[in-house]
Amino acid sequence: MLYSSKKKRYILKLTLGFIIIFFISGCQNHIPLPYNQKTKLETINDTIYNDSTFELEMLNHRGELVPSKDIIYDSSEEYRLVIKDTDTEVVGYKLMLLIDGLQYDLSEDDVESKALLLSAESGEASTHIDFSRVNTGHHFGMFIIEKIYESPRKFLTSEEDIRFTIYKSEGDPSSNINQPQLKVSIADSTALLASINRSIEFVAFPAQMQPPFEIRQNNEVCQDSLSTYNLYLYNSSPFETDYWIGVISEGEVITNAYSSDHILSLAPYAETVVQVTLSNINITPDKPFYFVAIPNPQQEYDSESLHLAWKEGRNTVTLFSQKFIITDSTTKD
Fold first, then answer.
1. Domain ends where: 185, 206, 227?
2. What's the predicted TM-score (pTM) here?
3. How many domains does the chain have?
4. Which of 1, 10, 45, 269 has a CA between 20 and 30 Å from the CA of residue 193?
5. In this predicted structure, what is the pLDDT of residue 180?
6. Residue 159: is it exposed, middle or buried by C-beta count within 10 angstroms (0-12/13-18/19+)?
């Protein structure tokens, strides 16, 4: 009788232990970690790529993490951006910086590009950031990073961006720069919504394309008098989110990232289809370009607010569409 009672307690403890282990392992995927993002599983050419961790940090010359809420620019200070990534398929990064929504030239020596190309070595890349040409006063800053993969992807991987404010007490006064504006309007969503799985949060198609819709790495479309695209956007966050829609080509952010003309506000778990016209956007033929959707473009992030955003389920991920190439008008699809 005593032996039977001990045996029952042993089985009960063992069962309870398994339940606790199962609960802990299940929760690990939901515990937010500062400056850390887990990417979704991707299926490329019937191959499954495992989740990877991706970190962005801005450091001073002492190797200390710079507080992103308010960076006081010091001409004697050196700033360094560090990227850490466990995705072994990544061979490099294309780095772009926006200051007050306009692209800041990170590659002064290269007249062909405002972006920096960084090689990924042992899962890490870093570069010195020169803020000396930032104008006087307070500014919003945002890095946009495009991963460069060893093999093609059907659409670009969404990534957490890094945001900050910077204050400079001396320098040239700010100047307004005119940039072309996207024409964004609500589109007929009947066909597109019926064809898109919500596991895809952001994707674009030429407006003249008919279903079934196919996502490819480099969609070739003929140049015509009106280059119009339908963009599908799904807000996976439990919070209302404002998205800025922009265009990037060859490392250049062609449109102003803080213009209210192309801000879309989506309710929690809502989806929409908008039509974008590129008739006044200067995209060089035969050069790839893609669309980008940035949630809450003027929101500042630091480790504390980013941790809270993840805990609450707020969207902190920059979404990239697949790439397109505008070809000569004589080229056929």
1. 206
2. 0.78
3. 2
4. 45
5. 66
6. buried
> Is residue 221 domain-shared with residue 312, that is, in the same domain?
yes
pLDDT digits (tens, 9 = 90+) for 79-95: 999 999 988 889 999 99
Same domain flag for 151 and 45: yes
Cβ–Cβ under 8 Å, residues 245 and 292? yes
Element (H, E) at 5: helix 2-27
Residues 55 and 155 in one domain: yes
pLDDT at residue 7 tops 60: no
Residues 186 and 237 occupy one common structural domain: no
What's the average model confidence in pLDDT over 302-329?
82
User: How many CB atoms lie under 10 A from the CB of residue 82?
Assistant: 15
| Rg of the chain, C-alpha, whole Å | 23
Q: Which two tokens stand for residue 294?
A: 């940035």
Token pair for 64: 């200390």
Q: Which two tokens stand for residue 304?
A: 């504390």
Structure tokens at 268: 């929690």
Kindly state whether residue 18 falls inside one of the protein's structural domains: no
Give CA–CA dist 290/150, Å, rounded: 19
CATH number at residue 314: 2.60.40
Q: Which amino acid would we find at residue 83?
A: I
CB 125 within 8 A of CB 66: no
Q: Per DSSP, which regions of 61-197 are E strands?
A: 71-72, 79-85, 90-99, 102-104, 116-119, 124-129, 137-149, 159-160, 162-168, 183-186
The structure tokens listed for 82 are: 């560090």
Instruction: Give the tokens for residue 26.
Output: 């299940």
How far is residue 291's CA from residue 102's CA, in Å, rounded to a whole number?
16
Dihedral angle at the C-alpha atoms of 265, 293, 155, 106, nearest 10 degrees?
-170
